[in-house]
Amino acid sequence: MSTRETENDTLYFGDVAFSSRLLTGTGKFASRDIIAPMLEASGSELITVALRRVDPDAKEKDILQYIPKSVRILPNTSGARTAEEAVRIARIAREAGCGNFIKIEVITDMKYLLPDNAGTLKATEILAKEGFIVLPYMMPDITVTKQLHDAGAAAIMPLGSPIGTNRGLEMKAMLKRIIEISKLPVVVDAGIGRPSQAAEAMEMGADAVLVNTAIATSHDPVMAGKAFALAVQAGRMARLAQMAEEKEYADASSPLTGFLRQ
Amino acid sequence: MSFMNNVLQLESFDFEGYFRSVSPEDVRNSLQRDELNQRDLLNLLSLTAQDFLEEMAQKGRQVTRQYFGNIISLYAPLYISDHCSNLCTYCGFNAGVDFPRTKLSLEEIEREAAAIAATGIRHILILTGEAPAQTPMPYLKSAVKIMKKYFSSIALEIFPMDEEEYQVLCKAGADSLTVYQEVYDRDIYKEVHPRGRKADYEYRLMTPERGARAGFRALNIGALFGLGEPRKEAYMAALHAQYLEREFPDVEVSLSLPRMTKAKGIIEPKNILSDIDFVQFMLAWRLFMPRLGITISTRESAEFRDRLIHLGATRFSSGSKTGVGEYSLKDHDDATVQFEVTDDRSVDEVADMIRQSGYQPVFKDWEMV
After folding, report:
1. Domains in chain A: ranges and CATH
2. ipTM value of the model?
3. Would you say the pTM of this structure is higher than 0.80?
4. What is the pLDDT of residues A87-105, one digit of tens each?
5. How far, CA to CA in Å, does B262 sit from each of B97, B177, B289, B338?
6. In A, which residues are within 8 Å of B120 by CB distance?
7. Are A13 and A154 in contact (CB under 8 A)?
8. Which residue among the candidates A103, A122, A172, A183 is catalytic per the annotation?
9. Which residues in B have their CB inside 8 Å of a CB on A?
């Protein structure tokens, strides 16, 4: 972020520092040529790539070649249905030159692409020991949040709502509690369909958000990337400024207990 | 519980009467829902719904983009044997048709695989007729192992097997299974499969379930349009897909709409599926199951396929040859094909067309681990 108020507001995954709190993705774009300008407009410094789409022997350009060198790659284990498959995919990704970051996706429900937290935890334990910087995609769960921390995750990535639904923060109550207790950065992943929802997640105290579908399938992914970046910044600044939260009940001056002082 | 129970229950349902009773208001209500139930699916498959085709298309395109992105995945079929012991009256490969049968040797399979891989294709579909004597398990297993060298995803469209046999092929490297029921109407099924292994309706119907239990991560099913009453068949196929999606949540389910075309030695198609019905069924399926894969083969013409990109399709075959050995071993004129390819463009040409339509052709979307 470039604004003075948040100049030193750095986000860390492991020992790697990021100034942008918007993570993006490479799937779903009409053309891979849009990825670089989208990254530039959004300022995103970390972009996820499904290893299943990486093809070093591709007849034409491989997906990795569309990502500028200045942006870090977050390979994901999309397609894995078990911890073991996720671990194998992570190792292949590292060998393919994708670096040490890995986003674990262990998905056992193809309708909503919902993660299996038990398998995710198991894969995290193994890969963190192998020196990966592990960002696990998870169902918002308090116990698993603590367990992932103990297992060596670098962040947690609870879903806001099912991937691709654009429904926003359907898991809001759970996310709030997770943000309160998590000792790791919380990246709200999946379901964020509008910049206002990204801002809301950041205002709630999320450390970052990951947005792919909403950017990739918009009519102008470059402008959408910029819009999300601004929303994330706005939400983050609102959080840092400790703006008053919206209250769900009236705030009249002591109508119920005032009599005690009379 | 199996899908056979659903088939039996629906045999007393008056499809014709229901379709006739659907009002424009019913269709409008169904179209407004976020999640469609089975009754909504019937409404959208009715003739009445054809007046709402553009609305279905607009919504269908939006839903497909949301869940799949601006993406079309590509694959190619590889026929390795046309030996067949079945007597399907609608198929040009049936045992009663007299033509010199071919089965590729393992060396020939490898040459075909290399020729296809050179076009950029990474997802392969292996096809055979139903002749376990000519294409026994060791042969199929070897074929899968050869494919592993060239492709990142291997799908099978072979004869139905027991769960244990499928396990062997999964272990060898196959990850997806295609099996069409051909026709869900049991009376017609009996008529067009008079004898042989395929005459067992229930064994065939249970095949996707056995495949899922054996470990395939993706299933592709469908009805062959041109046999049963199309609207009813479209409904049954979608219900079958939904059943599989619920029963096996970790399996990706896709549907295809193969249309019968005229061929030597086979019966005349009974219920020809028109283009408008084809599109309507695809869209009704899409709205009913937003995550459903929809596969379009080269049975369809280039012009028609170009349009289907916007109408809910997620996967295209390309550069297809439907005769055994046609990629590298023999000329089209010397081969006997299962069906005539009507989109004979190369993989590059199909990929270009996809790009020009505002979509990204995806060649590789799986990693074997």
Report:
1. 4-54+61-240 (3.20.20.70)
2. 0.80
3. yes
4. 999 999 999 888 999 999 9
5. 14, 26, 31, 11
6. 58-60
7. yes
8. A103
9. 65-71, 118-120, 122, 152, 217, 245, 249-253, 291, 355, 358-360, 362-367, 369
